[in-house]
Amino acid sequence: AMNDAEALLKIKQSLHDSQFLDSWKNGTQPCDEVIRWVGVVCGKGIVTTLRLRSMNLSGDIDMSALSQLQGLRVLNLVNNSFSGPIPEFNKLGALKAIYVSMNNFSGEIPSGFFTKMVSLKKIWFDKNNFTGPIPSSLAQLPRLLELHLNSNNFTGLIPSIGQQSLESLNLSSNNLYGDIPSSLSRFDVSCFEGNPGLCGQKFGKLCASVVPTPPPPSEPPQKSLKIAYALMGLSGFILASMLVGIYLLVQKRKREERDQMCTEKRNFDGNIGLCISSIGRKEEDGSGSGTGKCMGGRRSPRKTKGFGDLMMLNNTGKPVFGLSDLMKAGAEVLGNGSLGSSYKAKLSNGLILVVKRLKEMNKMDSDDFKTEMTRLGGLKHPNILAPLACHYQKDEKLLIYEYIPKGSLLYLLHGDRGESHANLNWPTRLKIIQGIVLGMSYIHTELATLALPHGNLKSSNVLIGPDNEPLVVDYGLISIIERNHAASVLMGYQAPEAVESRSISPKCDVYSLGVIVLEILTGKFPSQYHKNNKGGTDVVRWVKSAIEEKREVELLDPGISEHRSCIGEMQKLLHIGADCTESNPEKRVDIREAIRRIDEIRIDGST
Ligand SMILES: Nc1ncnc2c1ncn2[C@@H]1O[C@H](COP(=O)(O)OP(=O)(O)OP(=O)(O)O)[C@@H](O)[C@H]1O
What we know:
Blueprint lengths: L3 H11 L25 E4 L2 E6 L11 H4 L7 E3 L6 E2 L12 E3 L4 E5 L13 E3 L4 E5 L12 E3 L4 E4 L11 E3 L4 E5 L17 E3 L25 E2 H6 L4 H16 L2 H14 L5 E2 L18 E2 L15 E2 L10 H6 L1 E7 L3 E7 L5 E7 L7 H12 L11 E5 L2 E7 L6 H7 L3 H4 L3 H21 L15 E3 L5 E3 L10 H7 L6 H6 L4 H17 L16 H10 L9 H4 L5 H14 L10 H9 L8
Parallel strand pairs: 2-3, 3-5, 4-6, 5-7, 6-8, 7-9, 8-10, 9-11, 10-12, 12-13
Antiparallel strand pairs: 1-2, 14-18, 15-16, 17-21, 18-19, 19-20, 20-22, 21-22, 23-24
Adenosine-5'-triphosphate binds next to strand 18, strand 19 and strand 20.
């Protein structure tokens, strides 16, 4: 081991242009009482802080020497000329503060970079050129106070940082997208400005159908709320805040007092207050004064025509649950999609479900809804996730699914560069594409009578099972959601002919299939998923021009292009993706043809 003086001299050697460090000289001591080395702060005779701000420094800082400074707690390299990938600062496990603002560091910071830096309180990485996702390990720092990542080029979804300790945050001027995690909602909108892809309530921008916010697997458990309250949270701002107030009150009161609460609520505003636990329950009189859990609704249960409790849609022997089990479950918001919001609900028996609250539904009556849902729920295929149950009220329609822990393909591809992302090698991606194709083929056969059999295929609607098998969801919705709304939210309506002339056909599904194939091969988030095409990459145009210029290999995600021997197969698949996204529907391949060709792609390039 070297002493502090030796370590600092090695560090000086590794830096260019270190004329500011003239006082760092052999034969003198960094912590000398009289002539202390410049930029060095000591405590009890050892170096505790390096303050090398604005010294015109560059070069590859000698990390093994730096890590020899046993007492080092604060590292300040602000406003120098350091460049290249982030040095292994994570070797400095005892650091409390690291400031590297205003340099030219670039590249991705590995997702686990901060895992061992548990003492970190202050991280200032602003005004550099960092790219890629914000490392998810930041979410695990228990003492984090200040996090400044502004003015870089961070992309992707914001991980669930927002630990209670966090006081100062700046993520502005990056390329982040999606909804912000609920743990960050306490921060002012200015902390996020300059990220055109961010959406959600804070930004007054609906998260138009593309952006999920599944919590990363490593995320500390979110504070859970009861699903009944989670559901009610969506009925508009005013209603929501009124109900949150009630929720807090309810928390304080004893169970029997809640009954009164519900009644009070109705008296307060005759429009609100539907006692959900009484909906259609035979043993109750429907007056709503039974066990009260209030949620948004416009009518009293008595007047509402519904089919009561949950309707189970499958008979595969999966555990049966009722609406009341669901209402008692702890819930967590998964995301606000274009069709409504989804919640993860954990029942007391351990079963984990996803409750999807559909908005903008046709004014379907309960019989039609039931017929439609029975049809969708009755589909069975290894690459399809059929709903388990549904619930109908005039103003409330719920679909219930099994919870798939790995989450969506969108999340796997773009959300967090963790382990699951690393597993997305060529064989896995091909398996996912081929599975999606099998699922789509099945849907196109079973729902052939629909104008658009799936209608909403995109990576957030492909969930990934334990063996990386894809599970397609949210299919066949075209007949149950409002026509006008369908056009503005469904992915199928993004096909060029649908945008221009509103002409919808099964070919629109082929277009969506093409986009997803290109997304998987390039690893890029498609701008096609945004209504206004802002944010993400226009994969369709990008691939088209690359094919014309015969440089399509360059577009392959580096995560797969290392399988050199399979490049030919990847190229073939890229061409199929391009043919599926052909703008003229007449020339676009037909779904059967696309399926046949994708099925022929081989993992190893052999025929
Ligand atoms: N059964 C499930 N298991 C695990 N995660 C799910 C499940 N269903 C949905 N999710 C995830 O929850 C998030 C919200 O889903 P939701 O379906 O509400 O919105 P979306 O897919 O972004 O948009 P859309 O409403 O257009 O389908 C998405 O990230 C989705 O992948």
